[in-house]
Specification:
Layout: H1 4-8, H2 12-43, H3 54-61, H4 66-81, H5 84-90, H6 96-99
Helix pairs in contact: 2-4, 2-5, 3-4
Length: 100
């Protein structure tokens, strides 16, 4: 539902409920993304794809900004060392900036 006019037609409860669901989905996806980043980095799989670093892989292949890639890589590495980080992100108890 990306059409602005369709959002304007939603009742306020529906709009707020949808927003809450998106926030939960975002938290869950962020945790999963960090998990993947951590594991790809740990295995150095980016080397098989001719990228010299995880950073180059995220920026060059996946179009992340340098800032976005740096934060996510550091957070992914931290999550490998401290798996509780992922649980906290999923629950909304910690955000990416807090990990960074």
């Amino acid at each position: 539902m990306s059409d602005k006019s369709s959002l304007q037609r939603l009742e306020k409860r529906e709009l707020l409920r949808g927003f809450s669901a998106l926030v939960r989905d975002d938290q869950s996806l962020t945790a999963k993304l960090l998990e993947y980043i951590g594991e790809i980095d740990r295995r150095q799989l980016y080397l098989e794809l001719a990228y010299p670093s995880m950073f180059a892989f995220c920026v060059g292949r996946h179009g992340m900004s340098e800032s976005e890639a740096g934060k996510r890589i550091r957070a992914g590495r931290a999550a490998c060392r401290f798996p509780r980080i992922l649980q906290m992100i999923r629950k909304g108890q910690l955000h990416l900036t807090g990990v960074h």
